[in-house]
Design brief:
The complex is a heterodimer. Chain A is an all-alpha fold. Chain A has helices at 2-26, 30-55, 60-84. Chain B has a domain at 2-94: Helix Hairpins, CATH 1.10.287. Helix content of chain B is 61%, strand content 3%. Chain B is built from three helices and two strands, in the order H-H-H-E-E. Chain B has a two-stranded antiparallel sheet with strand order 1-2. In chain B, helix 1 runs antiparallel to helix 2 (31-56) and helix 2 runs antiparallel to helix 3. Chain B is elongated. Chain B starts with a helix and ends in a 23-residue tail after the last strand. Classes of the chains: A mainly alpha, B mainly alpha. The interface between A and B is large, with 55 and 54 residues.
Chain lengths: 91, 138
């Protein structure tokens, strides 16, 4: 039962990773790509969680925590760069 | 047995929510609706898979760490989404063509980062010159 759940979760997460990678490549503006990167980080946290259950190694939970922290800091840095960077659309 | 069922259920549900987030990221028409899809569904999905970890490895420190990850995700995702949404609005990223209300339009001063107050509604002004007459003495 748990094996099938793990395989299903891996499959769904891989599909989600492909979709958000599509948005990362295609995204019309830079903030779209930042949002796609943020979702990629969340997806990686999910992957780590599934792999903790699959392998039983609980040390990977620390990796998930650090990854969530880094993704947050990266999003804030990108937002600051976008706001102060002087790029402007439209007018 | 029950633990395995619960773990599998939360893992698959979390993966489904993250797939929904990625679908929303691809299918939604503009940046703010895409953020609306990814922030909430993505955090819920990652949190549910972490709940699966906490259920499966039911010993103390790992459970606490898994719940710390969940609390951290819930605390940081709105802040990050707010920062990116604000930056993208200030950049002038085009909104969806069917967007109904843009309340900041024309009111936000980008130089001073202040918001102009909305136009005052017409209030019936009282005449301060005429105080109410006291009742006549008997």
């Amino acid at each position: 039962m748990l094996t099938y759940s793990i395989i299903t979760a891996y499959g769904l997460l891989s599909l989600a990773l492909l979709l958000s990678f599509f948005r990362l490549v295609q995204g019309p503006t830079l903030p779209d790509r930042v949002v796609a990167l943020e979702l990629l980080a969340s997806l990686t946290v999910g992957f780590i969680a599934v792999s903790v259950v699959a392998s039983g190694r609980s040390a990977f939970v620390d990796v998930a925590m650090v990854l969530a922290l880094t993704a947050f800091l990266a999003a804030l840095g990108f937002a600051r760069y976008l706001e102060k960077g002087g790029i402007h659309f439209g007018d | 047995m029950v633990i395995e069922w619960l773990t599998g259920l939360s893992l698959v549900t979390g993966a489904v929510f993250m797939l929904i987030a990625a679908l929303g990221l691809v299918r939604m028409p503009d940046l703010l609706t895409r953020m609306h899809a990814t922030t909430k569904a993505g955090v819920l999905g990652a949190g549910l898979t972490m709940v699966g970890v906490a259920i499966y490895l039911g010993d103390g420190p790992v459970t606490v760490k898994a719940f710390a990850v969940i609390v951290f995700l819930i605390m940081t995702a709105p802040v990050a989404a707010h920062a990116i949404g604000r930056a993208s609005y200030l950049m002038g990223v085009p909104l969806w063509e069917h967007t109904g209300v843009d309340e900041l339009k024309g009111r936000y001063d980008e130089a001073t980062h202040t918001l102009a107050s909305p136009p005052e509604p017409e209030t019936p002004s009282r005449d301060p010159g005429n105080p109410p007459t006291p009742p006549p003495p008997l």
